[in-house]
Amino acid sequence: MIFFGHVGITTAAFKLYENIVPAKKVDKNESYIDYRLVAIGSVLPDIIDKPIGAYFFRSTFHNSRIFAHSLVFSMFLIILGSYYFKRSRNNGFITLGVCSLIHQILDSMWLYPGILFWPAYGLKFPTRPEGNWIASNIVNLLTNPFVYGPEILGAIIIGYYFIKLVINKRVKEFLKTGRL
After folding, report:
1. Residue 165 near residue 30 (C-beta atoms within 8 A)
2. How far is it, in rounded angstroms, from Cα 158 to Cα 42?
3. Among 19, 94, 127, 166, which residue carries the largest CB count within 10 Å?
4. CB 173 within 8 A of CB 34
5. How many whole angstroms separate alpha carbon 100 and alpha carbon 46?
6. pLDDT band at residue 139, thresholds of 50, 70 and 90?
7. Which bin fits 28, alpha (ψ -120 to 50), beta or left (φ > 0)?
8. Is 13 in contact with 154 (CB distance < 8 Å)?
C-alpha cells in the first residue's frame, strides 16, 4: 500500500470509531480526534523507515521496513501517549501509535515476523532483495488489485472528506484544529 490507501482507510477507521464511541468531555472541551495527526500517523512508519532503510543506511539494512514497522514502535507511542494523556489530556501520541499500528496491519506485517516482532528474533532486520522498490511499487499499483484497490478506496475517502470541508467552508478550521 502506498499513500492514499494508508491515509484514507485509517481516516475512515477513526471516523467509524468516532461515530460509534461517544465523545467524553475533557476539561470543558469536547474530546476529539486530530485528523492532521491521523494523516501523519498513517504514513509515519514509511516517513521514518524509507529514508533510513532505503537511502541513508541502505548498505546496513537492505530493507525499507525496519524500526517503525515493528510492534515495539507502535506500542512505545501508545504507552507514551497513555502517560502523556493522563498528565495533559492530549491524545496525540496515542493517535500516532494507533495509526502506526493500522499502517502495519495494512502493510500485512504479520507476513514479516522478523520485522513485526523485532527485536524478539534478534537485533538484525531481515534483508530484502536489492532492486528498485519504487519501480516495483509502480508496477504493483498498476497491476495488482490488492494494491490499487485500497489506493482507489483511500483516494475516494480522502476526496469525500476534502469536498465536505470545501462545501462547508471548513478548510481553515481543519488546518487549525484537525477536526473533520
Report:
1. no
2. 13
3. 94
4. no
5. 9
6. confident
7. left
8. no
